[in-house]
Specification:
The complex is a heterodimer of chains A (288) and B (326). Chain A has eleven helices and two strands, in the order H-H-H-H-E-E-H-H-H-H-H-H-H. Chain A has 288 residues and is mainly α. The termini of chain A are far apart. Classes of the chains: A mainly alpha (288), B mainly alpha (326).
């Protein structure tokens, strides 16, 4: 029983960080109706930005995480301005293959530039006793940061003008356009925000685990699982899906070992798509 | 000159053109057959790869180009085929041509089973689902439950059962067969149904096409040729392990080739595969570190600048006729 509680708590701490990345993916999907296959690479580059800032400049990793957020947001905005905007709203094959190509490029660029060794941020904050086991304070700090970011995001979506415009563009782009919302700016903003969320989630991942260039492939899979669980395009769903997946993975690792835990995410996606395509909590939504 | 004369002239011109095409085709085929006796073994192995890539690209095109369902999990079927043939040939001592053929059959059965539920998904859901299958496959192959079958991370080491020459001709035959079957599909009513599904699935369903059945058939045919080509490919590579069988790289290669040549056209994948084989060979020898990066950049540029591919561009310029058979 105690083991199960520990697994649950670990899962929630893990899932909140995953959830941030998934929220970015869901936001981009909700507003532009494209699957951002570059998202895993955004997470990976966020993690590396945090790592290099800490390693080269000796920055505090949490501070470096926020810098990573800005860097990846800028990268996302650049990619949108250069390439992505040309395929939004077009034949869906184009956006899928374009983001796929960008992902291959960024992945192999980091492979080329950083090498494929494992790296990790050394951020010793000690650990606290918990039910006869130990819980690293790192994870709790990351959890708090993730919660704050999610809270700020939800509040701004709910109450600010731009947040309202974002939600309007997500619900009905045509009517949003008619009522005077600059839909192109909103798309650019949402893509940059998706990148920002991925950057910060990547930074928090670098603080907790070892990172390497091909980690993006694994992370995007987890993001898909979370977004699928929460329903494509739903933000609170993505966060809850993150917590759900975190719990499933930590409990799965505890009882069946690490190899089986690696299959949980992809099989969850397929099962959810087939049996409950609207997600566990999501509203029914038609996708192309 | 009256109208019937004009028509007769046009007809004559058409047959003349046809004759030229047949002549060129015969020369190319004869050259490819005679190639192992003319050029060095190295160049032969490059051409062997070219045949495999043509089969891969055309197999991917049969599914994605014709039905519009983006198959991001191509390597799953290539991997199943490769593994099935390796298990049968090495562990069970089956005669190699039968083993290769059965590799294709197993991949096709895998495509049938996976397709029967994956193809009920649409659009983004299908694309994400197939990507997830691809990423789950190598993990599944190394789990302790499948180790007796797949030998886990060690994989298989082929004790080469056939000569390189036999492999060359096998690959030649497989690529020719794949293109021939694709030609038969695209010019038949089955192909027309697939194209109807690509253009408007609801519309296709409403005129009485059983869309799920047609999609699954296309998936199974695509899986068969993927598995068959992969069996020969892995026998040539001499080993197969989870990361090479379900590699992300051989998953994206057909996508690049088909996009380059022209998606949904018959000859596009062939053109793309021929170009990419030599580009790949060139890059491997000159800039091996940046090769994958360059390929990512090529995909991006292709989507932005030439979204239809080479063949479609020629068709839109009127250089090639706009028939389904090209």
């Amino acid at each position: 029983m105690e083991l199960l509680i520990i697994a649950l708590v670990e899962g929630i701490l893990l899932g909140s960080v995953y959830g941030l990345g998934a929220m970015g993916l869901s936001l981009i999907f909700g507003i532009m109706r494209i699957i951002n296959l570059v998202h895993g690479e955004f997470l990976m580059l966020g993690a590396f930005t945090c790592f290099w800032l800490w390693f080269l400049l000796g920055m505090n990793p949490i501070g470096a995480t926020f810098v990573a957020m800005l860097v990846i947001a800028a990268l996302a905005a650049f990619l949108y301005k250069v390439a992505i905007f040309r395929v939004v709203g077009k034949f869906p094959l184009l956006s899928r293959v374009l983001t796929f190509g960008l992902a291959i490029f960024l992945w192999n660029f980091s492979e080329f530039a950083f090498g494929s060794t494992f790296r990790s941020v050394n951020y010793p904050t000690g650990s606290i006793g918990f039910l006869g086991s130990y819980l690293s304070v790192n994870k709790i700090i990351c959890f708090v940061v993730a919660l704050i970011i999610a809270g700020v995001l939800f509040a701004s979506l709910k109450w600010t003008r731009i947040g309202k415009a974002l939600r309007a563009a997500s619900q009905n782009p045509r009517v949003a356009l008619i009522s005077g919302i600059n839909i192109h700016r909103i798309r650019l903003l949402s893509y940059a925000m998706g990148g920002a969320l991925a950057g910060i989630a990547g930074g928090l991942i670098a603080i907790q685990w070892a990172i390497y260039p091909s980690i993006g492939q694994i992370l995007i899979l987890k993001c898909f699982a979370m977004v699928a669980l929460g329903g494509l395009g739903s933000l609170p769903g993505a966060l809850l899906g993150g917590v759900f997946l975190g719990i499933a993975e930590s409990v799965g690792t505890m009882y069946w070992g690490a190899t089986i835990a690696g299959v949980i995410a992809p099989l969850t996606v397929i099962a959810v798509f087939i049996f409950r395509p609207q997600g566990l909590w999501g509203v029914v939504e038609r996708v192309d | 000159m009256n109208k019937s004369d004009k028509l007769r002239l046009a007809e004559k011109f058409k047959t003349d053109k046809r004759l030229w095409l047949y002549a060129i085709a015969v020369i190319v085929v004869a050259l490819l057959i005679a190639l192992p006796r003319i050029v060095s073994p190295y160049l032969c192995s490059v051409v062997f790869l070219m045949f495999i890539y043509i089969a891969y690209a055309e197999a991917w095109n049969i599914m994605t180009g014709f039905t519009g369902y983006i198959n991001f999990g191509f390597s799953v079927f290539a991997g199943i085929g490769g593994y099935a043939s390796a298990i049968l040939i090495i562990d069970h001592g089956i005669w190699w041509p039968v083993g290769w053929l059965l590799g294709g059959v197993f991949a096709s059965i895998g495509a049938l089973i996976l397709g029967s539920f994956m193809l009920r998904l649409r659009g983004s859901y299908f694309a994400i689902g197939m990507l997830c299958l691809l990423l789950a496959a190598p993990v599944l192959a190394t789990t302790e439950y499948l180790i007796p079958l797949t030998h886990g991370g060690y994989g298989f080491q082929f004790v080469q059962p056939v000569s390189d020459l036999t492999m060359y001709y096998s690959a030649f035959f497989i690529s020719a067969a794949t293109v021939f079957v694709a030609y038969k599909i695209i010019t038949s009513s089955f192909g027309a149904k697939l194209l109807a599904i690509r253009e408007d699935e609801e519309g296709a369903g409403s005129i009485g096409i059983n869309t799920t059945k047609e999609k699954i058939s296309a998936f199974a045919i695509s899986g068969f040729f993927a598995g068959l080509a992969a069996s020969v490919f892995f026998a040539f590579q001499n080993y197969i392990d989870p990361s090479s069988a379900f590699s992300a790289w051989y998953n994206s290669l057909p996508i690049i080739m088909v996009l380059l040549g022209g998606i949904g056209t018959l000859w596009g994948p062939v053109v793309g595969a021929v170009i990419m084989t030599f580009v790949e060979e060139f890059f491997w020898s000159v800039l091996p570190e940046t090769y994958f990066m360059a390929c990512g950049a090529v995909i991006v540029l292709l989507v932005l600048l030439l979204p239809g591919g080479i063949i479609t561009w020629f068709k839109s310029r009127g250089i090639l006729p706009r028939t389904r058979a090209i």
